[in-house]
Amino acid sequence: MPLSPFRAQPSRASSRFLSCMATLAAAAFVAGCALPQHPDTAAPPTDPYNPAATQLLDDTQWDLTRWSDANGQPRTLPSLPQSSQPLSLDFSTESGYRRASGFSGCNRFTGTYSLKDGKLALGPLAGTRMACAGAAASLEQPYLDALAHVAKSGVQMNPPQALELTLDNGQVLIFARRAK
Fold it and tell me: Does 165 map to a domain?
């Protein structure tokens, strides 16, 4: 049988099908490249115990705003005189080492801190030895003990910025970031 000099032309239906498939493929490609659009306020809250977030502690200063027991009941924080500073926790890498310091109600303290696998470890801590009386003195030793028993740490850098420390016994200390 001799070959026909005419080539078979694609049917009109198969041409439409190929055209539709090309259009769908192009639309899928463009849609796959588009980023979702939403304001930051619509974004889900970040996990405060994200291990990467603790790296944000370097060179920050925090003031204790809330202390609750393992059942979530708030611990009474004494009202310190207005001239007094709040209980605080500061992190510095200025010396080339990670140093923690702060105010514990009566005395100042200092020591080292480390961040490993998203966990904050403080200590050993050393402090001044001023004699104090009243509410500030009664809170100082429990506060320093709490800093020595951190089980989990979390940092929330979206406003309002907060540092959350969960202790071995389930108590939770919440700190607000202090403006420089």
Answer: yes
Question: How, if at all, do strands 150-156 and 88-92 pair?
Answer: unpaired
Write the CB contacts of 64 (distance below 8 Å, at least 6 apart in sequence): 77, 86, 87, 88, 89, 143, 173, 174, 175
pLDDT in tens, 93-144: 998 999 999 999 889 999 999 988 778 999 899 988 888 877 667 788 999 9
Nearest to 165 by CA among 94, 180, 176: 176
- d(CA 89, CA 78) in angstroms, rounded, equals 17
Residues of the domain holding 172? 51-177
Q: Cβ neighbours of residue 31 under 8 Å, at least 6 residues apart? A: none
Strands 119-127, 172-177: pairing is unpaired
Q: Is residue 75 a contact partner of residue 67, using CB atoms and an 8 Å limit?
A: yes
* 124 belongs to a structural domain: yes
Q: Which two tokens stand for residue 88?
A: 């605080």
